[in-house]
Amino acid sequence: MANIHEVAKQAGVSSATVSRVLNEAPTVTEKTRQKVEQAIKQLNYEPSMLGRNLRNSESRLLLVLIPNFSNPYYTEIINGIEDYSVEHGYNILLCETDSNPKRENTFFNMVKNKLADGIISMDPTVNMSKLQDLALDHAIVMCSEYDEYERIPYVAIDNEAAAYKVMKHLIRLGHDQIALINSDEKFLYARQRRKGYERALEEFGLPLRNELIYNTQNLDFQEGAQAIRKFSQLERNPTAAFAVSDTLAIGALKEVNVRGLKVPEDFALVGFDNISFSNMTNPTLTTVAQPMYQMGTTAASMLIKQLQGQEVDSIMMDHELIIRESTLN
Amino acid sequence: MANIHEVAKQAGVSSATVSRVLNEAPTVTEKTRQKVEQAIKQLNYEPSMLGRNLRNSESRLLLVLIPNFSNPYYTEIINGIEDYSVEHGYNILLCETDSNPKRENTFFNMVKNKLADGIISMDPTVNMSKLQDLALDHAIVMCSEYDEYERIPYVAIDNEAAAYKVMKHLIRLGHDQIALINSDEKFLYARQRRKGYERALEEFGLPLRNELIYNTQNLDFQEGAQAIRKFSQLERNPTAAFAVSDTLAIGALKEVNVRGLKVPEDFALVGFDNISFSNMTNPTLTTVAQPMYQMGTTAASMLIKQLQGQEVDSIMMDHELIIRESTLN
DNA sequence: CATTTATTTGTAAACGATTACATACAAATT
DNA sequence: AATTTGTATGTAATCGTTTACAAATAAATG
């Protein structure tokens, strides 16, 4: 692979001139530009990002941190990030942290080392203090998950309000024994959604029964099914459930079906995230839609603004309750 | 961020010595090592990958090309690639090509420019001639999709045999009007699976009815549903369908349900890929499982072997027909 | 035509690491 | 004590760019 000097030699100019052609500097004569461009073609030359980045100390690469690739929840956000970034001359790289501090460190180092310019973190398990450190002199944005007490800018939805809206919907349908299938409450969104759940109960004068709250380890289908099994052992069974993720809801739906109950007649079910499968289940699933794609573009724009030296503020996005068959009356 | 010279100065040694400490060269005195390590800590120094890579012309970064993030098909393969790579000191970066030649080019350039060491391509729409060019002096492996006529090593399954196995299963259940919901036959796997479909018909003495073959634009649910609608207009309806992807099968299942037909009693259905949702549908879906994770690790090992200068051969992996409720008799 | 001004190009020093080679120093040998 | 040997460190070139600054060339002015 030829380098800039060989191109310069071939074209009979200096490497500086070649560089100027590459960077579309205005001071290059049409004639020399042609010579250089021809030489570039002849030698099949591609400028080395490595040399360029070293000199410019920027890479135009953005890192997107997600806990694991398997979660369909992230795909639309990523599409948004991707589209916006590419449009603005940045490429993104998806980084799976696996909630593994060592891997996480690799990615942090990529930023420290100028191999990447900034980070959009969607990892709820991210090491906040390290991220905070990094944020002192690097561009960082959090998406979906964030830390209420830190000042790293984020884009997210109002989880409490969303959960409240779900509950209101179920209560209006006449349910007064509503279960909550929540994930681990070490996650902020889980705590917030629980808050919304409890607030709705309180405001509508329904008692809070702790045995109707099931906390899962992760968001696998199995956990949703497991929750239903647990509830079925209760003396007084719930007639509806709000799962904080569509995957949990789909697992629950499966188990409800297995037990011969009809959804929504015998049991109503609401999920969260509006993943594409939620519209393919039988019955289709009522769920909360976040403006995923838009969250992605917003996060990307915030990051790029930071890179350009602007201050950015956190943003709360709207959400929407999508009512489908699983809660029809 | 401090650089190696500042560390050297702080420690009272030369930058060469610092570099030796960083690279664990054996010739460094314990005493100087300590001095250097202390200086590194004091200055909070992190070596720049940029400088290092430029000098060493290797980045220990691998690129994984996929057409889009949204397809759950890829997740397990990626996990395999990831695990193997990390274990061997490489990091992977996920690159969405969007079947966009320009984006594709960016990633190719990353390799040309030594920003990344090699590529695992899972993109069926990849520009083969460009990839071939790149493969002349760079490490490339194809996964799932490949080009029969090129010599880029690949890891894949025997699609024809898998399709044949599916058909045999359906035929044994007594079906003689079996539809094929295939994707665009510009893809190799689609052509191969069609071949298996036709071979089975022939060997079991069943007629090939072209109107029972539906080719889709993509793998969205809707396309599966659309296929069923199309078939329902036929004079003689199929009693079973083999969809070349679980997403298509799930869309088909939905539409079959909508039409009031019972699966598997009135209509049998087989998918492909064994995505996690295929076990959550009602009824659960018979499908073909590819050893995804293992394909990932294998592809990664092939790539890393190439990087170490070894020759590698293509590999065909086993597949497995997973019989579930959608084809019970 | 000589001089000034504007424009285009070249020179060389960064960026931050690694490493062949040279050198310094200590220990071992004569 | 002088010489040899071995080990630890330093010097400086290198990777491929970009960009102040200097230099050269062309155009404009008197």
Automatic annotation (TrEMBL), chains A, B:
GO molecular function, one term: DNA binding
UniProt cross-references to CDD domains, sorted A to Z: HTH_LacI (cd01392), PBP1_LacI-like (cd06284)
Keyword Calcium listed: no
Pfam families (alphabetical): LacI (PF00356), Peripla_BP_1 (PF00532)
Record keywords, A-Z: DNA-binding, Transcription, Transcription regulation
HTH lacI-type domain location: 2-56
Gene3D superfamilies linked: 3.40.50.2300, lambda repressor-like DNA-binding domains (1.10.260.40)
Name under which the protein is recorded: DNA-binding transcriptional regulator CytR
Organism: Alkalibacillus silvisoli
Organism lineage: Bacteria, Bacillati, Bacillota, Bacilli, Bacillales
